[in-house]
Design brief:
By secondary structure, the chain is of the alpha/beta class. The chain is built from 9 helices and 14 strands. It folds into 2 domains: about 60 residues, no CATH class; about 240 residues, Rossmann fold. About 35% of the residues lie in helices and about 25% in strands. Bound molecules: adenosine-5'-triphosphate.
Length: about 300
């Protein structure tokens, strides 16, 4: 075991070094650890127990320089990965982290709109890009800022990978975390990201329905194979509360991503409801994580759990 952490919420996180183990072996180890804890003195109330799996790191490796890279990926498009990336970055910044955001979704960049930065053009110093400062405490770079609005980016793989490198090697200054909004799936851009920049970990976004979960499992396998630790799974568009009558329904089901994360032995970071307010605020460049209320709290909770798992 690599460590035990007690987070601000009182939850206990056990960190297991499981680099080199496959998913079933990790699942079995986690079950054994949980069973051993359950067998301990029942009077010992440990509250909520979370288990995080980290890839092994060599004991004498130097501490990595630069920001911690957190890749946000999904198996398929349209599950809310960009929305999640923007709001996770804002939520981390609200917790005092110095945060940057790379919109690596080269074929459908949406971060300039989500963070109200559509008119902002990044400057360059000796060919190195300088990220723009958004109004939400997050610095950001997006392919959307480098091409004319509305022009589809029909680049072949190597060009897209080159563009990603430019964004990643920008002058990010002294930041703690660099959140990377990846394109959906497992193509060239994702491969470049993993091979060239070795993210510290990946967050997987899924909606609750079975088909999305199958794709999310594929994305998990992709990161796992590349030795990028999966920091956790987020369930987006989980449960709908009618804004008129208040009735709650589950158009896509609910709990599927949590069950799948548990089955594979990864932490579940939380769920974000399907809410019209999330879409309208996002479209208007007002990230809900920057506001107040239940939805902002859900994003803050994701940031808390992410930080507990990687601190
Ligand atoms: N929890 C939510 N509730 C309501 N609408 C949401 C929610 N999450 C995302 N959306 C909306 O769903 C649409 C798709 O979201 P988003 O662009 O973040 O997905 P994506 O996975 O990044 O898609 P793509 O693969 O196309 O980049 C957007 O209109 C967004 O506002």
């Amino acid at each position: 075991m690599a460590g035990v952490r007690v987070g601000a919420t009182g939850a206990v996180t056990l960190v297991l070094e499981t680099g080199g183990m496959d998913a079933p072996a990790r699942g079995a180890l986690e079950r054994d650890v949980r069973a051993a804890l359950a067998d301990m003195d029942p009077g010992l109330d440990l509250g909520e127990i979370r288990v995080a799996h980290m890839a092994e790191r060599s004991g004498d490796a130097p501490a990595p320089k630069g920001p911690r890279l957190i890749a946000v990926g999904s198996g398929k498009g349209g599950v809310g990965k960009s929305t999640l990336s923007a709001n996770l970055a804002v939520a981390l910044a609200r917790k005092g982290r110095r945060v940057g955001l790379v919109d690596a979704d080269i074929y459908g960049p949406s971060q300039p709109r989500l963070l109200a930065a559509e008119g902002m053009k990044p400057k360059a110093r000796e060919k190195q890009l300088i990220p723009v400062d958004t109004a939400f405490g997050v610095s950001m770079l997006s392919m959307g800022q480098l091409v004319e609005p509305g022009k589809a980016i029909a680049w072949r793989g190597p060009m897209a990978a080159g563009a990603l490198t430019q964004l990643m090697e920008a002058d990010w200054g002294d930041i703690d975390d660099l959140v990377i909004d990846l394109p959906p799936g497992t193509g060239d851009v994702q491969l470049t990201m993993i091979q060239k920049f070795k993210p510290a970990g990946a967050v997987i976004v899924s909606t609750p329905q079975d088909l999305a979960l199958i794709d999310a499992t594929r994305a998990i396998a992709f990161f796992e194979k590349a030795d990028v630790p999966v920091l956790g799974v987020v369930e987006n568009m989980a449960g709908y509360v009618c804004p008129h009558c208040g009735e709650a329904s589950d158009p896509f089901g609910t709990g599927g991503a949590e069950a799948e994360a548990k089955r594979l032995g990864y932490p579940f970071l939380g769920r974000i409801p399907l809410a019209i307010d999330i879409r309208t605020a996002s479209d208007a460049g007002r990230p809900p994580a920057a506001g107040e209320g239940a939805i902002a709290d859900s994003f803050a909770g994701l940031a808390d759990r992410l930080l507990e798992g990687v601190r």
